[in-house]
Every structure is written in C-alpha cells, then in structure tokens.
Specification:
By secondary structure, the protein is α+β, with helices and mostly antiparallel strands. The chain contains 29 helices and 29 strands. α20 links the parallel β20 and β21. α2 runs parallel beside α5 and α21 crosses α25. The longest helix has 24 residues.
Amino acid sequence: MLVIRHSLWSVSLLFDPLARTIEAYDKLSAKYSEQWFESDVMLPFLEAFSSHLKEFPLVLDAGCGSGREVKYLTSRGIDCVGVDLSLQTIKRARMNVPSGNFRVMDLRRLEYPDSLFDGVLCVAVVHHLYDRDFRKALLQIGRVTRAGGIVGVTIRIGEGFRKDGFGRFMTFRNERDVEDALRSHGFTVLESSLSKEGEGREWLQLILRNDKPEDDPPIELCGFCPGDLFLKENRLVGAPVAAGVLWGDDKFYVTLDVSPLVEGHLLLCTREHTLATLGTQQNLNRLADHKAQIDDVLKRAFNRRPIFMEHGTQPSESTRDPCIEHAHIHALPLQNELRTRIEKRIGKLTPYRNIENADRAARMGEYISYESKRGVIFVRQEGVADLPSQFFRLVVADELDVENYHWIATKDSSDSKARFKRTLDLVIGVLDHEISSREIVSDIPQSLRQMLASLDDEKSGEPRPSKTAARMLERLEKDNSEKSSGTLTLSDLGERRIIEEVLTPFFDGNRRGQRYLGDDAAVFPWHSHNLLVTTDHCPKPLFFRLGIESYFAYGWLSAIISLSDIGAMGGRPRALLLNSEMPNDMPVKDFVSFVDGLAFASNLYDVRVIGGNIREAKEFSAATTVIGEPACEGPVLRDAAEIGHAVFAVGEMGLFWAAILERANNLLLPLENHHELNAGLLFPEPKLRAAHQLSEAGILGAAMDASDGPTQAIKTLAQANSCDIVLDLQDVEVNRSVELVAGHLDIDPLVLMFSWGNFELIFTAPEDAIYEMDPRTLSDFSITRIGYVKKGSGKAKLKKGRKTVELPQLAPDRFDLSSGVSGIAEYEAILRSTRFRD
C-alpha cells in the first residue's frame, strides 16, 4: 500500500499536465513570439470582438502570450491588460509591447476585483485546462467581467486528451459541449464560427455576452473606489492601466500611493466607504494577512520591512483638508522607525492591546495608529482632532528632511513619478516571480495522472525536482560555476546562503510576510498571540578534549543553547523537548548526570520539559527544541537596526576561550580568576533576564545571540540590516581574568574578548535610551558599548585609530572549509596573529 501511494505521489509531480504545459511555453517563448507575434491570423476575430465593446473600454487579455492581441487593441485606443501564467512569455510580451501592462497570473485565480473589465479576451488558452480547471476559468472570467460585458474565446475542438510535440497537454471538447458549458456559466453566444488550421485542427471562435445580473453600483463613487473611476484616477498620474489594484479581496485592496515620498510606498484600503480600519473588527484577520503580504513583498523588493500608519475617522466634511472616504493604511519601507517622531508631535502612543473595544474607540473620534516593524500596533486618540489630514506625510518628510510633503504638491514632480515607476516595477516583479514560482497543480483525478505516465518520455520512476528545486539548482550551479569544480557542495555556499537561497525560498515565502528564517527563533502565530520556537543541536563540548568529561555541564549546555535563542528575541521560554542519541554501552550514571544538568537549567529558568525522543546511536549527542512567547510587545528581530544606533553586548566577554587556553597551557592564575573562567567554560548563562528587561523598556533594535562569537553576530546583523556596523573599542574595559590569560600568551586582550562561546546578547539601541534606564536595572547585568551602526552595504568593520578596516574573522563560518579550525592550538594561533589595535 505504501508503494502505491508513493507511486501516485510521484506521478502527480512528474505528470501534472498544466505544469508541463507552462514549462513548454517557457521554453518556446522566443520561438513562439517570432512565429506568431506579427501574424494577422486573428485580425477578423479581434475586429468582431472590438465592435461589441462600449466606448472607452477596459479589456483583459487572459492568456496573452507574447502580446499580439494587446498590441492590436491598444493600437485602437482600447485600454488592455495582459496576463499569462508563463513568466518567460510575459517577459517576451513586455519586450514586444513596451507600453503594455502585463502580469503573471493564473486564469483560475484572477487577482482582480469583481466586474472590473468591460471585455475579456481568451485566445487559444482554455483547451489546456482539464474539465474542473476549465470550469474554474469560466467562473473567474464571468466574475471579473461587468454585467453585459463582452468575452471573446477561441478554443481547439475535438475529442480526447493528448500531448503535442512541444510537450503541451490539451483537453479537446466538441462544439456543443463548449457552448453548453459557456451558457451554464451565464454567457450568451452572440457570434460563433469555425476555422481550420492545417489538417484536422479546427478552432471554435465565440463572441459572448456576460448576462449576469447588474451589479449594484456604490452609493457614491470616488477616486478610491476600486473600479473604473479608480483606474482613470491612476491614468491621470501616468500609472499604467489597471496598475491601481495590486491584489485584494472583497473587503480590502492594496495599491500604490500616487505621490510617494519614498520608493515602496503602498496603501492598504477598504473597498467600502468606511473611515477606520478599527471599525472593521470582524475583518482584522484578513487585514493582518494583507499586511503580512505587503511586508513580504516590500522586504523582497526593497530589503526592508515596512511600518504601517493610519489616520482613522477623519470626516471629509471637516474644515481641514478633505480626505477620502476609504480607510487606508500607509505602508512605507523606511530605514528607521517613526514612533519617536510621532510621539514628539502628539504624545505617547498606547499599545493596541490596551484598547478594550476598538469599534467603540473608532466611533468616538479620530485616532492615529502606528504599527512598528515588529508588528506591534500603537494607537492614540487624545490630541488627534486638530492634526492635518496629511499628518503622516508630514512626519515622513521630516524624517527624510524634505520640504514638500502634501500629495498634491508632489505628485507631478519628476522625483515622485520616478519613485512611483520604480515601486511599480519592483513590486510587480516580486508578484510575478511569486506566482510563477508556485507549484502549478491541475485539478484532475489521480487515475488520469497515472494514465499520463504513458504519454511522457521520462520513465525514471523517481519524481523530478519540483519547479522551485529545479530553478534553485540551476541558479546555484550557474552562480558557482567559476568558484567550484565538480559537484556543488554545501561548503561552496556557506551557512548564510544555505538559509537565504535554499531554505527561505521553500518555506518562508509561504508565510506571507512572516519571514523569520535566519533569526534566532521562528515566530509562529497562534490564536491571538505569537509563539517563539527554536531548535539546536549541542555537539560534545570542547572541554571534553581537555579531560573534563562533565555530562552535567553537557546537559546544562544542551538546554541553554536553545534558551539563549529565545532570549535573544526578547522571549520567555516556556517548554523544552529533548532529542538524545546514545550508545548501548553508555554508563547509566553519565546519562543521569546529563539529565540532571538539563533539569537544573530548566528549573532555574522556569522551563517545563514536556517530552522528546531517545534512540540508539554509536555516539552520544543531544538536541533541544524550546517553545516560548514574546516577553512584551513583539519579537526582537535581527533586521530592526537603525542608522545611528549604538551596538551593545550583554555579558562578560571572552571567558570561554580564556578558560580553554588557561587549561591547555597549564597557566597558574589567582584562584578567583580561575573560578570565574571555569564557570564561563562549563556554565555560560543565557542572557534571558537582560533581554526581558531591555525589551520591556522598548529600546531594543536588532538583537541576536552570540554563541558563535560577537564578531560573527556583528557580521550577521550588518548583513541582515544592509548597513555597516563598526566596532569602536577605544573605551572598552576587558575582563580581568581574560586580560591575565591574554597577557600570558601574547594575545591582544580585545581579540580574546571577542572569541566565541560566551552566549552574549548583541543588540542595537539608541545610545541615550540605555543611559536613561534605571541604574538599578543596569546593575543587574554587565553591558558594554562596543560600536555603532552607520549607513553602508552590510559590512562589519573595526575602527583602528583614525582608519576603519574590515573586521577580522574570529569564529568559523559554518559550512565554510576555509574558515574552520581543527584544534585548540590552531585557534590559539589565529587569536595570537590578530590585532584589534595598532
């Protein structure tokens, strides 16, 4: 039975007809365009279709191919949008018709609002769809066409199911079946004709009218109603036709700000005439989904998370500047947060969770809503009534140090139009790639999938790589062809590229904006709050090489290696699972000692061990998974640093390697220093309490656990934030025990201080905010200023006197053979040869 299931699963991947058809069109795009783009074979049909359209129509070409029909219609003054599921074909269409508006889109899931188009054209497309997909396409065509709108369809007719010589699959239907299907979906046939193409190939050409009931028009149309008027409003500012609605549903839609102050400025709007999103509580989950997708798109397009801002319930009858009748949230991918600037103007913002009845609050008056990059929503009502309608644009202009901020004053400027065009290009590019990267699955029975195996040339019996995997492998091998010879291995990529280029495309893109791969822990939405989840393998500790076979300390490390990750995101660990492998001949006392150490750490940090797994293996190893929750407003992420932030480290730095070198070189230190180093070696502490207090104070920017060393953490934070982090160590005090070891071995004390293994918390924050904290809080833990954040390209640097140099590598990059060390003596040599000071 298992074999049969595997066979069906393999067939479903190998022989999905629509996926294979799109692959064929991707490969054929250049040849197909060359053969058919200049052909006038469809001219009579297009003229007949156009003659039925109303004046100034908007038309969708569904399955536009290389753009031939779009070119014809636009040449006759008809606004036309082209969509196709083949990315390469869309690229070819954009080359053929530079002024055209083309999108990658699935005909079975058109991302346009109801009744948007006056006409839909579908030439040589629907015969590629199996029956249920065919019906889905007809439903979508009917939905996006207005009542009384015109639909033009051409389809090959015949009998059966087959694959042609190019690898395209087709389902043939006879003339009667096609017309019956169209009538059952509300279409009336206005014109019908048959044409022949070569021997035995007949095409049915149909002009149809959509006879669905008349749509109820909005009570009052305005520039933000997502219909024809909205599109015309966008034409006035030079936007391509139908660029207005990027995506949406029946409650909300996303569009571009017509006068952006920054690239990537989007608006999330209500479809209905309503003045506040806080008054749409029943739709908040959908609102959150759209925000998450905006976050995802802007992160990919501009490498920054957005902030979200709303000025709610401002009536258009106000004596101040008029506003629109649609509640709208601004999304801007700015480098820095704006909460401080807003609070300087209107006072303290209150976390959204403290408002008991948002509906009632929205009805009582105006409010300002601000959502940070961490997803924490703040609201203020007091003192908002006298703010101008362009308040948020004023705050953004202040941040950018520009004079003009009102949308009317800026929309016609060349800078504003250039920002609009670049935003449109990058956002559409991300959306096109997202759609084309999805696995295309035809809605066909499994029995037919099995039958398709006999039609295909590939009979390996193994499933081919998925579309995502195939593209990924092709790109990675191409990118690394000059660097590596033979088989591409993980060492050719390194840890960061494995996360960003292998894991993220598979998993992070499915979470619509919640992109936490590469952070210390994953963030998992659960009901009304978030959970933090992390897992880590704890290899046999280095002190075992020194003859210290403490399984109690091994158990401690196995717990805190994951607890530290939760703490680095400002979280409170709640539960732990243990996965342990052990040999049959392992002494019971060693395993009991290991569990005792794990239990000691769990009890100390109030974490409940709830289960796990044990199994037999040749050597002992352990891995832990910890589940937690954010300690306060939201998770602390690695990519939330701001230009001008200072960089701090929590914890005594350098103890771990100082202890190893003390023992390896048989150094004789004062007893108190020996004990301090021994504690740092065997029982390093996760910085949970410090992370909680700093997070609750609301001053943490970006943060991460530094178990791989502060230099590696700083390098990672710089890359995650696309800015430079500069180590500035002129006023840093070195721990006395670390200094003693460094002096004995002729090692720069600062270098030893920045070695790995100490589980420091590295974070960015406004420098003044740290020193304004309660001194009693700061006395609870060691905190050291070690550098600052500046504008740059993601580099980690070191300030040496008056010059700034690249930060030396003091911790091995995982999966990087060139950076690894094979033993204690080798790492000691690296430390001795490195100098942080001239």
